[in-house]
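Hi everyone,

Forwarding the result from last night's run.
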Amino acid sequence: MGVARSLLGTTEKTGRNDGPVIEAILASTGNRKGDPYCAAFVYYCGKTAGYPKLYPRSAWSPDMVQSPTWTRANGGQEPRAADAFGIYFPRKGRVAHTGLIESASRSVFVTVEGNTSPEAAAGSAADRDGGGIWRKRRLRSQVHSVRSWVP
């Protein structure tokens, strides 16, 4: 979680998924300037921390919660720091945003996320296509699934 925390407050240069740090995050998964980067952020954090095989090398958010270890519907292994989470967007018909859990309580996950906005309403366009890397508080009821990748 140290890498994720160190990136907090990083913003896009022009609001188009760009800027030196954002482009480095995208490049880590083979993606380019302008592509969505929430999932690439998860991979980049693991890679930069020295664990390049911890998370899938992907910029596709559903990959981060494949074979979930916890779901809102069924529960499961209690989510913990460094687990990836997914937010389901009905309009997309899939998990369309992801990030890392920093801490968990009975009702809230504190998260660190890329490609979001700090004040965006849950489920809004800016929630999954915002201007930077931010810490957020997510109600458990807003989180669709969690995958623990940490052994």
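Residues 2-147 form one domain.

Cheers,
N.
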